[in-house]
Amino acid sequence: MRANWNPGDIIILKLNEDLYSCALMSKVKNYLKYFLHFEKSDCFDIMEIMKIEPEFCTAELGVVKHLGCRKIKIKHSEKFDNSIPEFWIRPNLGGPGRAFKGGDLVRCNPDTGPDPLDPIVKPDLNPSSDIEIINKYELTNFMDYETIRKRLILCHKMGKNVDPLKESIFDIDISKT
Fold this sequence. Notes:
alpha+beta, six-stranded mixed β-sheet, 31% strand, globular
């Protein structure tokens, strides 16, 4: 699907043959805010969506193009906060055989998105003492459409917002967080 980026518009995402979800286009291009609202077809009740808030926000690589099946223009998009979060987790480079291990809480500019030079608010997050922070904030990594698709399907199965990438970066069991 090709779509012009219009902050506040909703994209319906096809996750598999009988599972759909949706995301809100943020005011920062290429950042989507995902709803944990699922349907068996691409028929969504906009009034139902208007009652809930997006659960997480990530930079997207190909989500709209590969998973998007249609766009819904919301007349009253001011209902949704289409800004992106100020705080994010920037993963630390790992060692041999591991791309990332651990991470730091950083403050970004919500008008531009995370940047490698963002100031560190809390370094070296530790799952034993910082699990609430780890669960609350998103990783700065760009997520490709297949990673987002799998994550949304897992969220649907588990009935909550989970991020499998955090499991490998922080050595945590997401089913217990």
